[in-house]
## 1
Amino acid sequence: MSERHVGKRVREMRKVRQLSVRQLAERVTISVSLLEKIESGSRNPAPGLVTQLARALNVGPDRLTGQPYVNGAETEEQVQAVIPELRRVLLTYDNPDDLVTPARPLADLVAEMDHVAAMRQAGRYVPMGPLLPGLLTELTHIALTSSGKQQRQAYWWLARGYRAANSLAHKLGYHDLSLTAVERVHWAADRSGDPLMQVTAAYLKAGAMVRMGTYASARRVLEGLIDEVERLSPERSLTDPHLAVQGAVLLKLAILEARDGHLERAQERLADARGCAGYLRGDSTHYEMSFGATNVRIHEVAALIDTGDTEQALARLREWGVEQDREEWELPAGIVAERASHHHIDVAAARLAEGDRAGAHRDLLEARRLSPNHVRFHPTVRSTAATLVRLDRSQDDSLAGFARWAGV
């Protein structure tokens, strides 16, 4: 198992910046003992704390997580081999290379892009990746050479394609490419003539801001989007697509506030999102926004974990479990696989923080069952699995096998 973990990278960068443990701890307002545990690898920092540490050390979060991961899993799947081609396509977005054969009819490209979008939501990046460059190129040719309704439709689907490219790049740890893809979503959305697609593009950009820790800028964008969605709704009555987009914006704001240390504000945003979800019939995926009552609960747990209150996060799961006559709340069937997988990754990290190593291992296995590609390249999975192996005295073969599978 590799000894390269988040804490070790934090320690290395702290020494490069000539900071003591106390000085760095004061910059991110955590205790010296917690920072020492992080650096030793016995405690994993939540994603929000990784972002804070990165900002305090003047590096990107990927410098601390070690992304992109070109080892272990990459040796088997070679999923990152598509990245150079994707860079070329995103660079030539308004002046694409010539096609060897004419572009397929738009209807055929729409059907394939719909399939790609479904794979994105399921976290199936390995089979999705190779489809993207050619599909984006064909859609670009149609968008640039057609007019009227067909042109607007081509740009609308192109925006969805760039969103898939953003997800792929982000999940694999190519954050510079992810940011480029987000800008391309904006470019295509502006030309699609669909205001909600434009809101979606701004939402994605705000999400990138949150990941980089630029909370004030992200907050302004997201709060502006709330007003924009309400303005766009017919007669101020939100349709299901408007509710889904509005709810997703509110949930992003809740996570932002949690990571920025404002739990009360996060709870207010969660309450607003709960209100939106109450008008929906179940969980929806309008504009690829996984939103509904279930996702509000998922974010409620995530917000608690991000603020470091892992004990309360797990208590909330037990509380909701009573409604299902179970020990803990279980996700209902039909939730988007990547979203469900992400929930189990978060809960695994919370269980580890509370000393429940067996439970953390179970949640990692469940996350893998739901979306293997998503789990294999997730930094929290790697740090959680690595810590579990370091703390394991029984030499559990199943745990060691999972860590090897994840590329630890």
Note: The chain is about 70% helix and 0% strand.
## 2
Amino acid sequence: MNSPESIQQHLAAIVEGSGDAIVTKDLNSIILSWNRGAETLFGFTAEEAIGQPITIIFPQDRVEEEADFIARLRRGERIAHFETIRQRKDGSHVPVSLTISPVRDADGQIVGASKIARDITLQHQLAEQQRLLLAEMRHRVGNAFAIAGALISIAARQAESVEQLSSEMRCRLNAIATLNSKTVKDPYSDKPEGISLSELVGTIVRPFSEGMNVKTSLPDLQVLSAAITPLTLVLFELATNSLKYGGLSSEGHGVEIIGEIDDGRLKLQWKETCICEAASGKREGEGFGTSLCQHTVSASLGGSFSRVFDPNGLIATLDVDLSNVTQDS
């Protein structure tokens, strides 16, 4: 049978070898013992800490917690898993989970407390990551409904039957789904974030342009995830109108899409020759489609959008800050 001395030595070894900070204090809040875990967590050596008030590790705005702890300890209460903030020797703060138990003497009188402090920085980081992921999920779900609503509004203005509307929406939503998969970077992939501008334009225009002449001259750049959705909405509007009235219609002669980078800005031009009717007869600045594009480019990309009609066709221009579209600037 082990002697009391050997048991005490065994317990002392466990305390000293623990990765948690284990501290004892008296009822005047003076530190009586300080293990290696406390040295690692708080930065004070045992020689520096023992004999000092426990509040040397309290941020100024948390000092009042100690009076409450002492009052509860005097009543014999045990405090378990109390989450708070403590301060290291270098002044930095660390989130901790505390378990505080009363210490009694041989007569059963409460004479102090033992305190176990566990660093919960990782748990806080994981909780923050979860909060950000949930916020991002809500944002993306909201975006998805906004995109679907905008596409329905665009297609419904031009569809001549329910069947046509259904077919066109299916095609467009499939393209949206393809592009949406590019808005989240795979953490296990070395591929860059986003999608190339050429791939973005091709994915949108392809469902509208079977058998039609589509020329593109685009800079080699990677579109940021945040810019994919606004660019998609604008290009869908242009392609939808073009299929109905313009260069992608049965009487059109195709579309040319040109991109240029100049002085930190990206300018995209959509050019087409057609009978047009000024895209349903409305002058520039009027109509749902133009308003949608102007608002989207201004709010999401910090740029401008304009459409100019002439007897030969249409030139639509997006002029945006390059840094809002790509990191390749």
Note: The mean pLDDT is 81.
## 3
Amino acid sequence: MQAWRRLTVRGRIVVVFGLLALTAGIVFTQRDLAWLGAFTCAVVIGALLMVSWPVKGLRHERRLAVSSAPVGTEFGVGMTLTSAGGGLPRLLHFEDVVPPSMGIRPRFALSGGVPSKGYRVGYRLTGVQRGRFRIGPLLVRSLDPFGLARNDMAFVTTTEIAVTPRIFDLGGLRAGSSGASAEARTARAGLVGQDDVLVREYRRGDDVRRVHWRSTARAGELMVRREEQSWQPTTRLLVDNRRCAHSGTGADSSFEWAVSAAASAGLALLGAGSTLELADADGLTLSPDSDRSVRAQQLLYELTDITLTSAESLAAGLFAAGEERRPSSSVLAVLGRLTDADLATLIETTPRSGSAHALLLDVQTFAGGRQRSAQARYAMELANRGWVVSLATASTSVPDAWIGLHEAAEVLA
């Protein structure tokens, strides 16, 4: 039965013809016809033995030009085939398994087996969907010269590629005041922050050289520097990944826009010197205590793996009640569809020092609908409570939304 499955359509036709000829030659005592049938069957059996003979020492090595690539970019894949040589001559067909989103599986063939010096082949793929994907395994089909039989084999090794969010080059938000209402805070630092000196009351044993005379004169009591150097501003980057807050499908959905915006903004903030922590609707996902040398790569990998969640509130991703916040901590939120409860949560957890910025998506437009006035109303309410807000639709690019955030900050300044 296994031998029958290894026969091609041509091979099955030939073996049926051979058996019929052999049977007819025996029944009608036609020796020539019987010999023809026997010879035909022998050829098919030889083809089965040829393809079943193992390819001696066949190995392959797959190399990717990069370990990760942004959405929409091409990357190269190289493959080297080697063999210990020997074995019967045959036609080898190779097919490398790739994710369906990356296109058609690359195929190539070698006649007579793998050359003794090895064989190299390369192809290019395009990552059109964010996520982690595996390339492989490599499928090998062995064929006899007449195409009568085949034997399918497969390597077990695969290679992972991370398709990261689409990245846009954004300028950092300037330091300084971003504006606030009278009932909010009186001074707020921008997302990048500003140089400052932290002071406290003088305690016995403090070095006199650490006395901060300007603060001492202002407070009327001896004050000393708590830190000699400027503090590093901390920004919490919040990505709204609630399923109920987004619309659209695939790469054009509001959620993919939000992830791309978060990745672009996060890299811009890291480049400007900000200490970054990443959070979503389920809570904190990237701590600012991680290794600074790999923080940008960690940010991209976290946003590569982020998915929609069934959470209904943003409270877990914002500054929770009783949470110890860093000095002048700020928040940059990429928000989807809001409700009155979300608005109350955002206002309640607004940083008392630092800044609050939001890229607010009109998610209805990502599903082909009209712009909703409700999102515009929420944007206005947040702006009245000290937030710097930029409202984006499906036709708004990430750089344009970032520029809108700059312009809104200038209006409030």
Note: Residues 174-190, 192-196 have pLDDT under 50 and may be disordered.
